[in-house]
Amino acid sequence: MSEVQWTTRAKRKKLTELMFKHYNITAFFLCQTAVLTAFANGRSTGLILDSGATHTTAIPVHDGYILQQGIVKSPLAGDFITMQCRELFQEMNIELVPPLPPT
């Protein structure tokens, strides 16, 4: 199962207990998403950039391990960029028209 880089030890422990006790699994493995992203691209070392709606994160991965002290989070992400583009288009009097649905 994958987990985000900032999952607390308490949450990880609770999830592990839930998987063993409630679902009666015999084995369980948690891996952080940045490490999985690096491996999916054939690398064990790299800088993973994850940008979503609310924040962007840069996560350094070295030999399959996350360098926790190097993680950088920024509020500059999809929602903010969308808002800035919308304001720019309004200032330039550019009307955004959504595409028509396929027929």
Automatic annotation (TrEMBL):
Gene3D superfamilies named in the record: 3.30.420.40, Actin, Chain A, domain 4
Family matches, as InterPro entries: Actin, ATPase_NBD
Pfam families in alphabetical order: Actin (PF00022)
Protein name from the UniProt record: Actin-like protein 6A
Organism from which the protein derives: Tupaia chinensis (Chinese tree shrew)
Lineage top rank: taxon: Eukaryota
